[in-house]
């Protein structure tokens, strides 16, 4: 067991090396996705032209502050949106096998085709297991029907698989615990139950939305380890939604950085941590506490607040908080999404200007000081 370091942008210790995926390896492609909310105060562009890919058997992390649109982006991959939201443009392309493509965004969100995919091909792990699990049904009553329906198994076989999945995620006496209610489990054990439920029908993609947020540090480490192990065993893809850069350094192959509904930068985990090209990405990395820093060291906080989605700034959304903003340019014209080669892109007019290295931390730590295992 060791601390997973957070590299300093430009100089620090590298995250775990993982090869970037080739285009033909993509399981999902999100193209110019736009999701709007209708509210009493007006229209909210929660997701505004998002593009990225999810490789087979790899982990993509979406990073951003609260309100960046990362959770809505994740839910769009299942077409599982709040009733006030809808996909107004773009595509969510699912490639279950070579030569076959399904546009998830074009399916009726309440129709049989999408319901056949949810849970079987694509599953979801919530950050709130008590909200995800029914409090008035036993774990078995929630797992067995899903397994039976999607895998076409009889009740006995489905029950055996449910118990086997609970055992796999570390639930003691799994056959007995199928008769337990969610409140009879600890927070960490409830999250393990949610993972077992999410993986019970052998999905190709798991969307994990802040799955460790409400857990203590040790349990967080165990849950991350478990997801990595299960991915290695089954070859599933993971879309990990988080604000924790320590988790990103540990599990990601590719990283998508979001701000106010837009992707401002994307690339491999090595590219994002070592060569950030967007001022927001750089600011996020600089704001992580460092174990080697002295007691009097001040955090490099990002100045200002995230703008209201009802009152977006003109030009670049980040320019009011940006240390590199150019008057007359960044506050006037919205920057294009600039391709930098491969899957790398940045939404900035100054992708080269922000490249001076950041001061190296003496002891690069994890942002949460959690202990994690390199798989």
From TrEMBL:
SUPFAM superfamilies: P-loop containing nucleoside triphosphate hydrolases. GO terms for biological process: peptide transport; transmembrane transport. GO terms for molecular function: ATP binding; ATP hydrolysis activity. One of its GO terms (cellular component) is plasma membrane. It is a peripheral membrane protein. It comes from the Bacteria. InterPro entries: AAA+_ATPase, ABC_Ni/Peptide_Import, ABC_transporter-like_ATP-bd, ABC_transporter-like_CS, Oligopep_ABC_C, P-loop_NTPase. It is found in: Cell inner membrane. Keywords: ATP-binding, Cell inner membrane, Cell membrane, Membrane, Nucleotide-binding, Translocase, Transport. PANTHER family: ATPASE AAA-TYPE CORE DOMAIN-CONTAINING PROTEIN, OLIGOPEPTIDE TRANSPORT ATP-BINDING PROTEIN APPD. Belongs to the ABC transporter superfamily. This is Peptide/nickel transport system ATP-binding protein. The lineage of its organism: Bacteria, Pseudomonadati, Pseudomonadota, Alphaproteobacteria, Hyphomicrobiales.
